Amino acid sequence: MTTETSHHGMPSYWNAVITAGLITAIVYSVIGLASAYLTIAGSSGAGQGLGIGACLISSIAGVIANRMYAKGFNLTYPIGKGALLGFLAGLVTLIVGTVISLFWTEIIDTGMNEALMQSTIATLEAQGLTQDQIDQALSFSPEPGSMNAILIQFAIGFGSLSIINVISGMISAKIFAKEEE
User: Fold this and answer.
1) pTM score, two decimals?
2) H helix and E strand count, the chain
3) Phi, psi (rounded to 5 degrees) for 11
């Protein structure tokens, strides 16, 4: 087996980063879709719980990438490189997850965004809000599926997945890529 080398003669980490990002994005997307469908079905508490679970799952991209890279090549490297691997794996997760989400809502279930909006309105009505209050609450969020909504979700995902996977990458580099004593 040949391995592509990168900077300073170290093996390339891209296979580990892309694999970790793909695995995490698929699991993250499935849980996110389940959360959305639970919310549409009226189980907003369960949907929110799964949504939190999806966020936690997204934090393991950095762990998977560092474990695959360090253990796959029996390497040691500093936590800064672990942070880089975590960041890149989180970015792959975000990009692939966004593509899966767009594919799902634009091709598979084109009514999903509208159903989520109706569920949100029903939840606000159940809380006893007036129509003016509901309209005001909805005015703070962009139309589901719009370019603004996609960009805002991507920006939030970039910030959160970057930070959490940099941290998980640093921790996992310390665990998996530590020097022998």
Assistant:
1) 0.88
2) 7, 0
3) -65, 150
| Cβ partners under 8 Å of residue 40, min gap 6 | 112, 115, 116, 119
* Average of per-residue pLDDT across 74-88: 96
Is residue 69 within 8 A of residue 75, CB to CB? The reply is yes
Closest Cα partner for 69 from 25, 28, 18, 22?
18
Length of the chain: 181
CA separation for the pair 125, 44 (Å, rounded):
14
The identity of residue 47, as a single letter, is G
Whether the CB-CB separation of 10 and 77 falls below 8 Å is answered with yes
Strand partners, 96: none
Q: Residue 54 — pLDDT band, cuts 50, 70, 90?
A: confident
Report phi then psi at 153, rounded to 5. -60, -40
Residue 31's CB is within 10 A of a number of other CB atoms, namely 19
